[in-house]
Structures are given as C-alpha cells and as structure tokens.
Design goal:
With 608 residues, this protein is α/β, with parallel strands linked by helices. 36% of the residues lie in helices and 23% in strands. The protein has an eight-stranded antiparallel beta sheet, with helices on one face. α15 packs parallel to α20. The protein is globular, with a radius of gyration of 26 Å. Bound molecules: 6-O-phosphono-beta-D-glucopyranose. 6-O-phosphono-beta-D-glucopyranose binds next to α10. The site of 6-O-phosphono-beta-D-glucopyranose has 16 residues, from α10.
C-alpha cells in the first residue's frame, strides 16, 4: 500500500504535496518523491528513506518551483527500497511521469513487450512499466495514451499522471485502489485518502474504475469509460484530520482487524496460478525441497504463534519432523540444523534482532532459509535466500493482527506446496486448500460482522484480573495468540494452557469467577474440551467457548459461546483468531488503554 497525492493550482505545489504525503506515511514509508511540472520539463526529486529525508533534500519543497505536481510515499512490493525504485517514475524520454499505489500483476509481460520495442528500464518496479507503456501510446494526446495503456494493465492501481507537454494538468485513474479528488478554490487535489488534503478542502469525491479525471487549477473534468463527461457528486467531509488517518476508525488496530479479508485475498490470490499454488521460490528448488529431512520454524511473539499453528499442518502435509523454536532460545540451543534442514523465519517487520540472529545461526549451520516477511527490503528479507512476502500493507498497531493472518495464509500455501513437491499431498488436497483460501475472505467478513457479540462479552469481563485460554492441538496454538493479544494491549494477566495439561498444576489457580476462554474448534478433540470445561466450571470458573455453530455439547457446559461457521480444519485458525483479536481489542478499549501503542512495547524490537 502506498500513498499518492496531486495538486494543480496557483500556489507552489511542492510544500503542499509534502504536507499531504506526511498524512499518508502510515500507508508506507520506504521512500518518497515529488514530480513538478517545470518550464518545458518535469522536475523529479525522490529519495529512499522517510519523508523527512525528502523534505531536507528539497528544503521543505522550496527548491521545486511550479504549481502543478504529484507526490508519492512508498510501501515496497516490487523492487527493494532505493532511490531508483522510488516513485515518481519518469518515462525514458521525460514525456510521462507516474505515481502509483497498487500492484500490476502482468508487469513482467508488459516490460518484456516494451523491451522488445527498444525501451530500457532503470528500476525493478512495476510502476516504471506503466510510465513507459503510456509513453509508448503517447502521440500527443494524453487521454489516448492513458486509455490505451489502461486497457493492458492487470492488477490494482491508483495513478497520478503528468505529461510534459500539458504542464497545467494532472490525469488520474484507478482500479481496486482508492483515489479521492478534492475541489478547492482555484486549486484542485487528488490523493489516496482524504487525510492528505483535508487541510485544504473538505469537498471531495471518489473516482471510480473506468473513469478518467483531469485536474487543472480551474476545475476537474471526469469522463467515463466511453469518454463521455460525467458529473460526480461532491460530498463534504466532516471527519477531523486524525480520525481520517485511521480511515475513520478510533484505532489503527481495529482498522487493521477489519482489513483482514482484503489482506487474505491480496496475500493468497497472486499465488494461485491456473488452479495451483505458485510460490515463485527463487533459490530453493523442488529438488531441494525433496531433500529436506526436517523443518525448523523460528520467530518471536505472534509470529512464533503462527509457527505453532503451522507445525501440525507442515508435519501432516510434508511428513517431516517440525520444530518450532522461540528465536531468542534457538540461537543458544545448539540446534540440530544442517544442510538438509529448512528453517522458516517468520517476521512482520523483518527487523526483530532475535529472529535475525536465529536466521544467521541456522544459515551458519548450513540450513536452507525461507523467510515470511511483511516489509520488503527489511534486514531479514535481504539476507534470506528465499522470501515469501505477506502483502498486508504497513501494520501500524503494535499488536499484530492482519500480518498474523497473512502469515497464516503463506504458511498454509508453503506447507501445501512442499507437500505436493514431496509427493505427500495430493492434487485434490491442493484444490481443496485453494477452495478454502478463496472462500476465507467472505467467511472472515461474516465473523467481523458479528463483532458486537464479542464487544458485549468484553463488557462483561474487562475488569477481570486473570484470564486463562485453553485449547488442544491447533486450538492451543491459537490460545497462545489470543492470550498474547489480550496481554499486549489490555495489560490483564492471562495464560494460554494446553487444556489437557491444566489439571497437572495450574488448575490450582482456578477459583470462583475465574474467566476461562476455551477454544473448541479442533473437532477430533472437541469432546476432551467438554471435560476440560467441566473441570474448571466445577471449580467456579466462568467459561467463554469458541465452538462450531450448533455444537450443543459445548453450549451445554459453557456460560457463553462464540459460534464459528462450519469450516475445514486446515484453515480454521484463520477464522478462530478473529474473535480473539476482537475480544482483546474491546477489553483494552473498555479499559481505556493506549491500544495502538501499548506501554513497554515496540512494533519491532531491534535489541536482544
Ligand atoms: C514483538 C511485538 O516486539 O515482536 C509482537 O510486540 C511481535 O507483536 C513480535 O509479534 C515479533 O515481531 P516481528 O516483526 O518479528 O513479527
């Protein structure tokens, strides 16, 4: 996810664009850049690093004269963060300049076509392909060039476009990515979201797929996909600037929880090609995968919990021993790692030092390395021989939610891919996983729509002093994450316990009124959970159970039941985690905690 802005008016554009980009940094902050229509040329200034680097390089934009321009703040997806991969991207001859939010899925095909026509490329990005493609179709008519190029683009985009020969205007189009047009007095704006322009105007409309907007200081014209002019209804934004940055939500965490259906879709769908899972591993071959004799998963915090969920799945689909280790322990445990070991390193930030050290330890012993990372260009991504990116976009809340869910998706797909390569998983297994992955976003959406039930339960229990999360097998792995989420943001002490283990000691802590969250989604052991619930109820506990809808045995013994839809075991964790995230969020919210920035925590801990 990136942020784009545009301005056409009578004031100097650069300082206004920088202001707008500052409001969009939460959408990505690997690099930033500006392009300003100058006297017969387009001036481009772009830098790797946070926006302040660009501010300093342009003296807060003062160095860039001109009253029409576009700007970009980047979240790298194709091409590591670098000056040359930063946006805006200028066509080779300086005629066309683009800022882009989105992913062009067929950019390699388009790039090869353009190379065959003599084009050369400076960057590794999909965006540069767009600017060159528009140049290819540009014979003096910008609209023609935009429409011709658009017809070949597959994927998602929100584009701000400058043409050197029409210095008074900006062209804007979008597909599956937001693009807001702002109407000012003698000046007009475009942006990825309203935050960027709220300081200048509250009169906006959203551009739709197929439409083309042309912005000048005097006005904005919009044409439909037939080229016919259309009138867009202008609305007046009432949000305050801070709320808008979170898309109108009170916290980034709830915004990110609600983004999960889209994140699951974005992480899975590009890896489903012609009905099979395609991971495009660059270094580790199918032969290497067949030669693996054990798997280690190393990570910290929630990423470690993803490993705990993935362990039984990998073991079953690959018929291999799987060891999940806390990264901070792994390095000092003299691990049984050699060149027949695959070490899977999971990290949202790609900067957690414990995890980085664990990676280096495994590699030093000859292990093959695949990392699952959300931040392109991060340290762990850069040193891994293969990386599977989670396309969750920037995750701002310290307590991870959408990245956790995206990591689960990648692990399901990696386990299935390896299982197929090793001849253990069947084609039918693969097709069934793909069916589930394609149905997951809607299933998650349906659970999110019932979030008020979880909010109600949170209102009953937010003053609890201790909370126990119980589960068996994969439900135990989920209990670990549910407990951590709650601890991280509500500061309530909680423990996750293997339900079968509770009676061997910790049950001594259960007393009248103790709150127990029992996860009962793993069907083969559901009846065992009924007994475990009875054990704790007999000692005074109050039980919230997560169960499959219609499970009367659980309903008979639990005080409250959060129902989950009938769903296959393999990807059920992606559904069961949602109520646990929501419960933690609402409890913390009712306690008035600083949800996005909990005390003592950091989004990424880069110390041992
Ligand atoms: C911790 C965070 O510092 O790091 C956790 O509080 C996170 O939420 C853990 O899961 C691992 O971070 P990462 O970036 O390596 O996934």
């Amino acid at each position: 996810m990136c942020g784009i802005v545009g301005f056409a008016g009578t004031r100097q554009a650069a300082p206004i664009l920088l202001d707008g980009l500052e409001k969009l940094e939460y959408r990505g902050y690997d690099s930033a850049g500006l392009a300003i229509e100058g006297d017969g040329e387009i001036l481009v200034k772009k830098q790797k690093g946070r926006l302040r680097v660009l501010r300093e390089a342009t003296h807060n934009g003062e160095d860039l004269p001109g009253v029409v321009g576009i700007g970009h703040t980047r979240w790298a997806t194709h091409g590591e963060p670098s000056d040359v991969n930063s946006h805006p991207h200028l066509s080779y001859n300086g005629e066309v300049c683009i800022v882009h939010n989105g992913i062009i899925e067929n950019y390699i095909e388009l790039r090869n076509f353009l190379i065959s026509k003599g084009y050369e490329f400076a960057s590794d990005t999909d965006t540069e392909v767009i600017s060159q493609l528009m140049d290819y179709y540009y014979h003096g008519d910008p609209t023609e060039a935009v429409e011709q190029a658009r017809s070949h683009l597959m994927g998602s985009y929100a584009l701000g476009i400058l043409f050197r020969q029409t210095p008074d205007r900006i062209y804007a189009i979008c597909k599956d990515n937001p693009l807001i047009i702002g109407i000012g007095e003698g000046e007009n704006f475009m942006a990825s979201d309203v935050t960027a322009i709220l300081k200048y105007t509250r009169r906006v409309f959203r551009l739709s797929e197929g439409e083309l907007a042309v912005l000048t200081r005097d006005g904005v014209t919009v044409t439909d996909s037939y080229g016919e002019p259309i009138e867009k209804e202008i609305t007046n934004v009432t949000w305050d600037e801070n709320a808008a940055e979170k898309g109108g939500y009170e916290h980034f965490m709830i915004k990110e929880i609600l983004e999960q259906p889209e994140v699951i879709r974005k992480t899975a769908s590009p890896r489903i090609v012609n009905g099979t899972i395609n991971l495009s591993l660059k270094s580790i071959s199918d032969e290497d995968i067949r030669g693996i004799d054990k798997i280690y998963i190393v990570a910290c915090g929630s990423a470690y919990h993803v490993g705990c969920v993935a362990k039984p799945i990998l073991s079953k689909l690959c018929r291999l021993p799987v060891f999940v280790e806390l990264a901070s322990e792994f390095k000092y445990s003299d691990p049984m790692v050699d060149n027949k070991t695959l070490t899977i390193v999971i990290s949202q930030s790609g900067e957690t030092l414990d995890t980085y050290h664990a990676l280096k330890e495994a590699a030093s012993r000859g292990s093959r390395i695949i990392s699952v990372v959300n931040v392109v260009g991060s340290t762990i991504a850069m040193v891994s021989e293969d990386v599977l990116f989670t396309w969750a976009g920037p995750e701002i809340a310290v307590a991870t939610t959408k990245a956790y869910s995206a990591q689960l998706i990648v692990m399901y797909m990696l386990a299935m891919y390896m299982g197929r390569v090793r001849g253990v998983a069947t084609e039918a297994d693969e097709k069934e996983l793909i069916r589930q992955l394609e149905a997951l976003p809607d299933a998650v959406e349906a659970i999110l729509e019932k979030k008020e039930q979880v909010q109600y339960l949170a209102s009953l229990f937010y003053s609890s002093k201790d909370i126990f999360f119980l589960g068996r097998n994969i439900d135990y792995a989920l209990a670990l994450e549910g407990s951590l989420k709650l601890k991280e943001i509500s500061y309530i002490h909680s423990e996750a316990y293997a339900a079968g283990e509770l009676k061997h000691g910790t049950i001594s802590l259960i007393e009248q009124g103790s709150l127990v969250v029992a996860l009962c989604t793993y069907k083969p052991l559901k009846e065992k959970l009924v007994s475990n619930i009875k054990e704790v109820v007999a000692r005074g506990a109050v039980v919230i159970a997560l169960a499959n809808e219609g499970d009367t045995n659980i309903e008979a013994v639990a005080d409250h039941v959060i129902e989950l839809p009938e769903w296959e075991e393999l990807t059920m964790p992606s559904l069961a985690i949602i109520p646990l995230q929501l419960f933690a969020y609402y409890v913390a919210s009712l306690k008035g905690c600083d949800i996005d920035k909990p005390r003592n925590l950091a989004k990424s801990v880069t110390v041992e």
